[in-house]
Design goal:
The complex is a heterodimer of chains A (332) and B (388). Chain A is mainly alpha-helical. Helix content of chain A is 78%, strand content 0%. Chain A starts with a helix and ends in a 6-residue tail after the last helix. The chains are: A mainly alpha (332), B mainly alpha (388).
Amino acid sequence: MSDLKRFLLRRALTFIPTVIGVTFLVFFIAAVLPADPAKLWAGGEKANPQVVENIKREYRLDRPIWEQYFFFLKNVVTNEMVSPVSHNKVWEDLGRRLPVTIQLTLLSFTFIVSIGIPLGILSALKRDSVIDMLVRILALLGVSTPVFWLAYLLIFIFFTRLGWITLAGTPVPPYSITGIPLIDSIIKLDFHTFKQVIERYWLPSLVLAYANIGVIARLVRNSFLDALSSDFVEFIDARGLSSRRKYVHVLKNAMVPVITVLGLTFGGLLAGAPITETVFGLPGVGRYLIDAIRFYDYLTLMGGVLLIALIYVTVNLLVDISYAIIDPRVRY
Amino acid sequence: MSSEEREVYEKKVLDKLVDLLLDNLTHAIDRVRPGWKVRNEARVEEFKLTLYALNRSPPGLLGLSLVSFFILIALIGPYIAPFSYDMPLVLCDRNAYLAPPGTIITVKEGSLCSEVYGIKPGNYTLILGADDYGRDLFSRILYGARTSFVVAVLVMAIGPLIGITLGLISGYRGGSVDETIMRITDVFIAFPGLILAIAFSAVLPGRVSEILDMFPPLASATLSLFALKPEHVGALANLVSVIIALWIVWWPGYTRIVRGMVLSARENVYVEAARAIGVPTHSILFRHILPNILGPILVFLTLDFGGVILVEAGLSFLGLGAVPPIADWGRIVYDGAEYFPRAWWLVFFPGLATLLAVLGFNLIGDSLRDVLDPKTRRRIEFRVKGKR
């Protein structure tokens, strides 16, 4: 157990500098790189110099860099970050849009796990068969297809031609427990809302998942084949255990590397959200970021990018910890 | 000898092409640096066998032909395009407005079009249709290939180079150098790639246009690289910002991978021997370690070439990167989506072009992985060797 403790300590210790580095990089991107944001916020070239001065003072843009950085950190922690464009608190604006992105990624993740993993096992069991080849093609097409193109193609089929989906609004139930309708409706056993959520989100989630399904299936396949050729399988065969028991053991071993990649996949889903949300008209964090950029709202950009990075880093921390608990071999 | 065996024994046309190319190349190098051919004969033979094996992989050949096709388009596309990328053909014929594929437009003698824009009078077929300005989609896709490939080449020439170098140093030096580089890498990897690219390409244009204004030769060189007209210099800043953003996004992955490979490669006896006889560090890194980990890196480079094209299209679809009137596959979809599904061709064809170009690189990468992987390599190699 001391091994595990040491691993967890080490992992936690690298987590802290990463988070500090993330805040620093975000600050650098949105506060240092833009050329004269105050003028943009005041209305561009024709802005009143007095207004520009006021904005500079309000957002501490006339102060030294390090002071600006601590001002930014303080505002992030105390929820005092105010958008210069919408004049709303950035965290509250983002918080309103977060449930949409979470539902999108959660459903997408469900698709990846429930389609990708069985497909991978199937293609490992029937190696070099038609299924195996189809999975390979799916993986190749998945990483080659522009998400927006696939999205419009499917909108053409399911919206324009078949009329099966809607592209407006997002279902919000009258109650709120976690703030995420998908989870709330499951807790409350409210199948009406649940059905609405699924109807609105299934196609965007599938589009977002598509790029990853084939990749995960290939990974599961290779990992499964690796596990199948390891020594313990020979031992199991020699002991004469049933093949069902054998495959349970193989599957357990094959899943270990898959878990790490699933953690990374989560980042890919968050990254894909802006495009998917834009095409399907979902008011999520990604869509909001893109709109903020259009209005030079760099504080919202800061908040959004920071939020996504923090979610991603935390997910990967949890993945690494669970990985170490599941597999004693990775504790270093 | 069965017929199947005889087939294996035959040298394919492509193998002969490989022989011709490599023999001439080694000969040329040998002229410049006498003795090179003898010293590197084994390495050249090995490389030939790899290419023979690639010649025997149908997906690899398909990928190779797709990629060669698109590289050709990127090179000559702007010269063979029937119209310029910004020619508003609605000025010639009102039918050009959102013209569906196959529309025939007429340019009349003495009209504004032929007088001012110098388009010869006559009938023209817009084979892929036109957008809301009546700009010919086929021409814009040809120009778009140039945009995509120039971005991809520039990104792949710098980003991985930084990443690989840092990875080599980090893995070989170890200690506090390693720790520092890896912590910095961790910070960049903490962001999902596209998000970081979005952030950088959103904030950079202001600074980039300052720099481009300061160095006019740089701006004009970039313009001719992208085959753009001088009057569109203002649209350049956003495009260059995307390239810089992708440099920043594309190095950390390589640092991590290369570091890991160096960590295991430096334990080899030949590295120890080189160190023992006093070979300088840079020489050990670049002449002893790098060539031995180059195979997997080559696969990543190929796959990422497609990846850059895909991400660049995604960014310009979000309105970042290429701005009008620059022809860019992602941007054409972004502008055309307004008229979807009525003008489906504005979404369908640019997306299809992106898909095929990226697929080409992924097919090559996938086959390269098989060819370069020692596990699958033997099978292919022995079949190839048997033909001598």
